[in-house]
Amino acid sequence: MKRLKTIKLALIGAWVFGTALLLCGASLYPSTAATQKPPPKEQGQTAQAGNYVGEDTCLDCHSDQSAHYLKTAHAKLKKESSWKGKVVGCESCHGPGGAHVETMAEALGGGLEPAQVKDKKIVNLAALSPKDSSDTCLKCHAGREEHNNYMRGEHFRNDVGCISCHSSHSPPPAGANLAGSNVFVSQANAEKPGFAAEKMLRASEPQLCMQCHTETKHQFNMPFKHKVLEGAMKCSDCHNAHGGFEQKQARLATGADAACVKCHTDKQGPFTYEHAPVKTEGCASCHTPHGSANPRLLRTSSVAQLCLECHTQDHGVGALEPVGPAHRLDLQYRDCTACHVKVHGSHTSPVFMR
Amino acid sequence: MKSKATRMLRGLAGLALCLALPAALARAQQPTPSPQSAGAQTQSAASSQKKEETGNYTVTSSVEIGYRGLSVDGDINKYQSDLNYKAGPRLFDSSLLVQAKDGAGGPFDTLLVTTTGWGSDPNGHFRISMEKSKWYRLDGNYRRFKYFRFLNNIANPFYTTRPTDPATGQHGYDTRQQVGDFDLTLLPKNKRVRFNVGYSPTRYNGPVFTTWHYGGDDFMLLSNAKYRSNDLRLGADLNLGPVDLSFQQGFRRYKDESFIDDDNINLGVNPALSNAFLRSIERAQPIKGRVNYSRFSAHTLLAKKLDITGRIIHSSAKSDFNWVESVVADNFNTRITNIPGVINPPNVLTLGQFNFVGDAERPNTLGALGLTYRVTDRFRLSNTFRVETFEINGNTFYRGVFNLTRANGTGAVSIQPTGSALETTKYRKVQNTFEGDYEFDERYSVRLGYRHGRRHIETFFSGANLASNGAPPLPDDAHEEDNQTNTVMFGFKARPVRGWSLSLDADHGTSDNVFTRTGNYNFTNIRARSRYSVTRRLRFNLAFFARENANPSEIDVNGSSVSLADFGVEIKSRVFTTSLDWTANDRLSFGAGYNYNRQNSDAVIEYAFGPGVPNAGIRGHSLYFMRNHFFNFDVVAQPFRRVSLYAAYRVNKDTGQGSRISNQAAGIFISSYPMHYQSPEARVALRVNRRVDWNLGYQYYNYNESRLAAFNQGTFIVSPRPQNYHAHMPYTSLRFYFGGGER
């Protein structure tokens, strides 16, 4: 206990000290957002290498991207006073466009078509590695807690970058109005393209996630499952796609509890008698959360077998071996939860009888 | 069911005719379109995509309403437990998207409202997203679930005593749950500061069957479940130079007001009048809980090289309860109930009263620190440290009154036991992960890592066994365990050609102890994925996952150790998955996939089985098998400008344990869930005019678990009989487009 307090104190102390240090040193380092001179206002101005030309100049040529881009949150930043003095718009991600404008002007003047010109003087995020392209996004987006641990998350580790799922200027998914399932979420009755576009997602959930996580499809088609395909839940209700400190990038509920108890509130406790694995091992030690043929999403179809896998011999912490005639597997009591009804925790019974 | 369904189907056919007629008329009144080139058709479709303008806003909206028919053959309870779709009118889906023309409007820049599944659906949701980017953003959702469970394959002890009445699973319920999340962010685009307010209510209620093992029998009781919680969150995000700070303070209040009030005679699962039975029971079990939690996090990027993130969460959970229960009953088994043996059955419990009062607390602290240092443009080092501690302290005080007489009313006995108990659980986990990631170039990278974790757990119990009437004191019970786990991780990523990405991840770890026998002890996980976007319209995925965990589970029996190899747990799983998505053009897309999931689990267990044998200590194997094949495809087509089609097929087929048969006498317990579950679906959408689509669809569900019965050998039964069903669900609907629609 003393050791525990020491760790707590050390952790909190380190934070206070670290925060103070960082605050004091704020002037030593540049802001996470690029701080540059505002772009020239007059279009057509001769741009020097490294010069910013402003998004109007970009959109003059890239009109196919402008229609969608102008409705996104990125386009609105230029009107925010708190972003004044910082580069916003196209060049905040693609870098200064002056050299690109010059190159393209020369090429087009020489009779080339835009598609024929391979200009490397402008940053093309799609050509970068996922980690490098994500670094560009994180310059601004890392500050939100949702994104803070992205660089140590599973997606980043596996080269799934921000633009794998998000697009700041691609149109919504095509074919949105075609017929689709009226039970399972499909393009026809999923969250609307406009909704996805607000988050700049390339597609709505869960289709977006299942494009890669195909291994989950069969689980959500099982007799017992969480209603994700039906649209009543989203992958992001339980997982943070941007990383996190928890396994499987699971979210937390009410502070430090498992995401499950956010809806399954009666399992949250605290109980006088807690079934310790619920908190120490997590719900997935007995349940398969996505879907299962087994009732209650249990890992096995036989309740007794599931329980006995731990409750055999006196194994460690309180996993006592069931003894006595009432625990004979050939009798009517073989389904443990018939008597031990409050297996997640009880206020009145140390063996969870009610 | 069938006659009702037939009426529904007739009604549906009539409705379809009514819907079809105006559609046909509308179609007939239009001039025959001139042949158009594909390009012209596309242009025409594009022109219809123009949204309607209302003042400063453009509106995109649609509502789909219709009627669903239903015909179910087979096990209606299983159908309702799985699907629970009902026949009747239904709001299939609706959406409203309002966007300011120049990006900035009056009260809002963007408003989106979507709904799905209201009416005869078991799941419905409502979502709203509204934003005026300079000032606020509101994201909200409200979801409603209708739960139904009445199965004969779990908690079904009636079967052994009532084999002629097997459809009586004990823990059935028919409940409703509402869940909401509403989050308001003030100044959402402000670089320096943002404020957050959130509210999440949860409601759950409905009839729930529970069981109570009491007095020498097991009773099924009808409980009225009713609990609710309200979660309020306040927070702010702050940018101070290079440092981003976030703070959130949350308050959750929880109340459980479930109760039982049953005056009917309850004979229990052993329905002999000479056995114990309840005459009445009243149980009130109000519980009040609260969780106050604080979360603080910080992030900075120093010199564009060092990314630092930290988070501290502290939550303090507490619950108080006051349990009162009154029982009138007959023939209580005094051996089990600890009532003095002088009043052995037959007897009458004229009053059995329990009163439990107590509370439980659980402070929980979670701290984490993540660092990533960009050594060079291609080389990164990361370290993630995480510590979690919690402590659960529960106290219960018990007071009971038990008045008994002999069957003829004489020999009154009264006992008034009291007792108390406390239980404590302490837990600490410290884990550190160190990783290095190197990119050879834009296409190839490799990752190596090492994770070390330590856990410590203590449990302590002191007091009486409050599960019993007599509340006999128990000896103090204390446990303490530690474990350490060391894991090495490896990853390789490649993008051999544009659009093709390969990833391989593996981790292998060993532990010196586990808290649960199935926990990670000696484990190896491998994940390999290939994602290939051949073109923007053709994508092919392939993945393979392997997981293994072996736990020798060291034990000590009567002072002598048991061979580790003979007393272990071994879990293996293999998953193979592949999928193909092809969008031929704007009018045709196709998707298909196959998934194979194989699981083997083998755990040595000790059990009791059969009369005349010890009540515990026979050693055997608990085996679980899954051999699931899943195939799916869906196709979306628009063969004509006014007609679009959707067809899909999904099937899960699990062959389970195959030809293996349990042999309890030999200590072989095998379980699986062999089943076959398929759901084809088709839908036609006809564009009646600019504002109306007419849809006609059909869904079919076929669930078959008949093979399960073949494996129910002896008396070790997972399910007493198959719960097969076929469900036919035709439906028709009209989708109305407002404000230009989503076309």
What are the main properties of this structure?
heterodimer; A: 354 residues; mainly alpha; two-stranded antiparallel ribbon; two-stranded antiparallel sheet; B: 743 residues; 33-stranded mixed β-sheet; 8% helix; 64% strand
Brief account:
The complex is a heterodimer of chains A (354) and B (743). By secondary structure, chain A is mainly alpha-helical.
How would you portray this structure in words?
- The complex is a heterodimer of chains A (354) and B (743).
- Chain A is mostly helical and 354 residues long.
- Chain A has helices spanning 2-24, 55-61, 63-69, 73-76, 90-94, 98-109, 130-141, 154-157, 162-165, 193-198, 207-210, 217-220, 235-238, 276-280, 303-308; strands spanning 224-225, 252-253, 257-258, 273-274, 291-292, 345-346.
- In chain A, the strands form three sheets. Chain A has a two-stranded antiparallel sheet with strand order 1-5. In chain A, strands 2-3 form a two-stranded antiparallel sheet. In chain A, strands 4-6 form a two-stranded antiparallel ribbon.
- Residues 8-50 of chain B have low confidence and may be disordered.
- With 743 residues, chain B is mainly beta.
- In chain B, the strands form two sheets. Chain B has a 33-stranded mixed beta sheet that branches. In chain B, strands 25-26 form a two-stranded antiparallel sheet.
- Chain B is 8% helix and 64% strand.
- In chain B, strand 5 (110-118) and strand 6 (123-132) form a beta hairpin.
- Chain B contains six helices and 35 strands.
Shape of chain A: elongated
Largest protein interface, residues of each chain: A-B, 156 and 248 residues
| Count of alpha/pi helices of chain A | 15
Helix content of chain B: under 10%
* Parts with pLDDT < 50 across at least 5 consecutive residues of chain A: 21-49
Q: What share of residues of chain A is helical?
A: 25-40%
Question: How is the main sheet of chain A built?
Answer: 2 strands, antiparallel
**Rg of Cα set of chain A:** 28 Å
Oligomeric status: heterodimer
